[in-house]
Amino acid sequence: xxxxxxxKPDQWILSQTFTVKVEEIxxxxxxxxxxxxxxxxxxxxQILSTPFVSYKNMDENGGLxxxxxxxxxxxxxxxxxxxxAEIESDSYFLPSYKALSxxxxxxxxxxxxxxxxxxxxxxxxGGKFSGISYEYYLSDEEIPEEQQETIMELxxx
Length: 157
Known about the structure:
By secondary structure, the chain is an alpha+beta fold.
């Protein structure tokens, strides 16, 4: 797996946040993408890049409290969405950040090891993991699980 140090640009976000148990994650992601995507299409909002899921409360080793995972499901958009509250969502400005990025190909359930490898790489380059990760899903559900492509980003200081 090849790692790349990146500087993510400032961007507007339209998203929903949740606190869930680990087993509830799959039931949250799909319906939320559909809800936000439908709203974006209906409102004529310009999407800037791939939708994402972000995990907010990871510890310095990449661990999560599996009974209370803070997650965000969203889309980078061209500007603030003033009526986001209509669909119980938020629209906010996300300042630029440094991240370690990697393309992962495989089953979602097998992403633990790549996360740990990325944590090690952040330490090697003298960084400190911020506790926030982003996953950008490049494949749709029709692609076999072993061939699913995901860009993983771990934010660091």
